[in-house]
């Protein structure tokens, strides 16, 4: 269950950021993912 829990936790964190910053827009969501990829690490708003 460790793998499942880790994947679920990561998915939840990643899904939460675009929703808050993007306001539900697909383009803003992509921007949030791009920023995370550039930083090389996840940031907490």
TrEMBL record:
GO molecular function, one term: structural constituent of ribosome
Ranges annotated as spanning the membrane: none
The organism's place on the tree of life at top rank: Eukaryota
Signal peptide: none
Family matches, as InterPro entries: Ribosomal_uL4_dom_sf, Ribosomal_uL4_euk/arch
Region of interest called Disordered, as start-end residue ranges on this chain: 1-33
Keywords linked to the UniProt accession: Ribonucleoprotein, Ribosomal protein
Gene Ontology CC entries for this record: ribonucleoprotein complex; ribosome
Entry's Gene Ontology BP terms: translation
PANTHER family (alphabetical): 60S RIBOSOMAL PROTEIN L4
Protein family: Belongs to the universal ribosomal protein uL4 family.
Name of the featured protein: Mitochodrial ribosomal protein L4
Species for this entry: Colossendeis hoeki
Taxonomy of the source species: Eukaryota, Metazoa, Ecdysozoa, Arthropoda, Chelicerata
């Amino acid at each position: 269950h460790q793998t499942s829990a880790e994947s679920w936790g990561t998915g939840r964190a990643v899904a939460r950021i675009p929703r808050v910053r993007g306001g539900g827009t697909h383009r803003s969501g992509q921007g949030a993912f791009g920023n995370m990829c550039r930083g090389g690490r996840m940031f907490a708003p």
